[in-house]
Amino acid sequence: MAWELGFDPPLKFETKSTSVAKDLFYYYDYLSRFHATQSNTCADIVDYITYNALGIALIQANKASEIKAFIPNNYKHTGPKRSVVLIDEIDKAPRDFSNDILNEIENMYVKIPELQNKILSAPKAMNPLIFITSNSEKHLPDAFMRRCVYYHITFPDKDRLKTIVQQRLKEMPMQTGAAKKRSEHFLDDAISLLFYLRERVRLKKKPATGEMLVWIQTMLEISDEDNPVIDDSEALISSMSALIKSQDDLVIAEGAVQQWQEERLT
């Protein structure tokens, strides 16, 4: 979306199990501030603030001359401009996290107690675009969901998945053996097996795109064959632990691989 709109790359906030609402906007280094006061080298309070994804977006949405009180001395301001913010895997955070950022996200502001409760906000025309991902591991509060436009990303079809994998492989660092040119059928066969496991085998957790990328890279690293899916059964079975993420599913998947191989020959 950022590329489509001609914006800078997205500002990403990686949610953690310890995240609190303030973390989305900024971090205040209390310890450095304390040591500085003890040594009489204390700088301005704002110089101990490090802005995070949404905080950066709010800063960049304004003219520097209008928000001088919020800008640390070493901060490079390149606005005003709009930003795309990605809040990744919000369901990792404590339940209160979603509730605590309701007003701030809806009205695009943050109150900073360390700066005497000054409010940093974005002009409406420069509001950042916020994208929030969730693995649906837990239910998000209804009040939070009412403020969102929900979109479910379905698993890609075979052609789309092949395009994704090809693109990602170009970005991945490869060892010498892995960089060898592979059979043009390698990805097709790997994707065929993946869909077989997803659609015809009863696994507790179906492998997704992320697991497939690791699996593909693992096979490329451990096998010298042009098409390890077909020509290197040992590497194929050994690499399954990169694709399947539980022991019960692994036992089932290894048997299913053999069944898939037999069906290909009939």
From TrEMBL:
InterPro entries, per database record: P-loop_NTPase
Q: Could you tell me which Gene3D superfamilies the record lists for this protein?
A: P-loop containing nucleotide triphosphate hydrolases
| Protein name according to UniProt | ATPase-like protein
Instruction: Tell me the organism.
Output: Candidatus Magnetoglobus multicellularis str. Araruama
Q: What is the lineage of its organism?
A: Bacteria, Pseudomonadati, Thermodesulfobacteriota, Desulfobacteria, Desulfobacterales
